[in-house]
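Exercise 7. Predict the structure of FxsB family cyclophane-forming radical SAM/SPASM peptide maturase from Sphaerisporangium corydalis.
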Amino acid sequence: MPFRQFVLKVTSRCDLACDHCYVYEHADQSWRRRPKVMARETVAMAADRMAEHARAHALRTIHVILHGGEPLLAGHERLEETIVRLRDAVRGICELDLRVHTNGVSLDERFCRMFADHDVRVGVSLDGGRRANDLHRRYADGRSSYDRVVRAVDRLGREFPDIYAGLLCTIDIGNDPVPVYEALVALRPPVVDFLLPHATWDHPPPRPAGVATPYADWLIAIHDRWRKDGEPVRVRMFESIIRTTQGQGSLTESLGLDECDLAVIETDGEYEQADSLKTSFSGAPATGCDVFSHTLDDVARSPAIAARLGGLEGLCDTCRACPVVESCGGGLYAHRHRVGTGFQNPSVFCDDLMKLITHVRSQAEVRPRAGIRVRAGVRAERGREGAAPAAHTIPGPDLAALAAGYGDAATMTHLAASQTSARRLLISSVYKLAGPGVADAWKLLTELDRGHPDAVREVFDHPYVRVWAARCIARGQWAHPETRYLSNIAAAAALRAGVAARLAVATRGGSVPLPAMGSIPAGRAQEAIIETGPGVFAVATEDRRWEVRLDEPAAAGDWRPISRLTADGVSMALDDVDPYRDCYDHAVAPRLSPERLARWQAMFAEAWEVVKRDHSRYAPALAAGLRVLTPLVAPGGDVQASATARHAFGAIGVALPGRPDDLAMLMIHEFQHVKLGAVLDLTDLFDGTDEELYHVSWRQDPRPLEGVFQGTYAHMAVTEVWKARTRPGMGHIPEKATENYLRWRDGTLEAVDTLARSGSLTEVGRQFVAGMRAAARSWLDD
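Solution. The predicted structure, encoded as tokens:
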């Protein structure tokens, strides 16, 4: 496994004398024999080794943290030389994510400007307010470091926000947690890391008598206040618990089952493991390798690295059997050490981690996903008989109904609830990515969520809101112009709630879009001001102002509300205005004329009659789960076009066909993809590392396993539509319908067998495919 993260120790000394420091105050004292500053030739050799490693493993990005000791003691010139040498070494090979972690006391304007010029992000250690910070972070003569650090952090936030990476706080349970939290948040960091104090079973952390989980209690107090405040900053520990619960990677070394891909390079060029191991015993982080004699592949093969397995295999039996192991991961490796048993122990903070993880999961309303893939096999969470199913599990009867191709209204409601939760997490992640620029929108949303949760949910549940959020997260730091759309979401929620609010909102394509509501033209303006009230809103740009009363939309003229299609008690949006509806592989149609809209309405009403009459087993799920139709541009001729998007649960794109029964088939076909996508958000049906390609009858090119799953599940419905069309009186030539039915039947049965034989299905996946096979085999009676 290649290394992707590197800590470069540019200095080995520090200008503070923190009494909890793992480098100077714990078991390993190797700093005493090392150079105070890394020599230029060592920097050059380290840079070349990293570049060599990135090229050999085709790495797209490597992450380097300039560290110490205190890295700023290297001085402005030497540190800038080091930065330039690192960037030069990897240029044309990979991207370099470069950061520096400092105690902040020497972080002057010159350093900040230099880091900004070279795109180096800056993290600072701070343990809270003055009293909390001065418990440990003092100079050797006892003087406080607080004022200098806070001045430096304040400068970062005000003058250099683009390189402000966040704050790291080492926990001391002697400090009141809420004031610590308030002091950190007041400095507006993009991220806060809370670090458990380093300890082992032989040297356990301080615990008050009679208190079983003081560190969990301390963190839970902060977590609950953080949630109440609307999560104003990212907290890496809390985010990691939620991410790992959902099968994603951790954001911190101290949690999760991710394999370790970190190497440390000391000032003398020696390679070491993570610094936290210095708390275990003398020599614990050593690898026996150095940059002058060894490549990074040599380090990866060294016994020291091999002994530290990631994943479930590297944990003791107690951890492997633990119900929160996906999130805990055994805790920080160093915290497991005990003389006699080495690292084959739970964390010395085991009880605290169990309590904290359980609490965060319950407050965020997340559960471990059914079928989370861990190396020991598949874990599936089963609901208790009679208990209401959790939003992040699939009850057995629902899974069986979905596997057969159907599902009722209750099943769709359950899948929709899981999607609501997923959207909330994604939107929260976008807010944390965006930072202060959308603070007003986020504050409004948190207030609305407390007082008008239905209004917030209606807007959040519009399918294209998740498309927007997913795009922002995929673009990362380049998404900042897109993140302003959060203000439009907040304005739409305020309008639905009938609440008075005033926000600066983004324009898209010459309009101000309000998701799930509609849009209004804005000319060439890049920004507009919206004011909402009960049943009314006004939009103003530099040169114009519109006022819209929702009960008199025609009076507004320019207001373009989202249209609705109705048929026999069923209603869904026909969205031809949302700027994020362009998520399909086909071009989306522009705003419909009144005549085109009338044609859509007439054909939809007839198509729904076809669904109810001829395909009644699909009708309940469609009625409950299909929220939005988006018109696509027709390809021309007799070619039909329809599509779904992975992040747009509840929406399909369709080019209006010539016949109502074809629209019925396209809706049924595409909604199969929507249902299966929601299932795959909840559970792993197959091993995601399977890179094999498989042949199916409806494609000339071989498909990855997920593509086979999606195609097979959708064509189960297509087969049944053609089977229905073989009946007399259906308006189709029986011979042609029978030919199509048999072709799709045989191809789908073959594809189901391909899935079953793939060897990559999880236990849940085997159950699901068995349900598909049972449903498909009933066709053989024909």
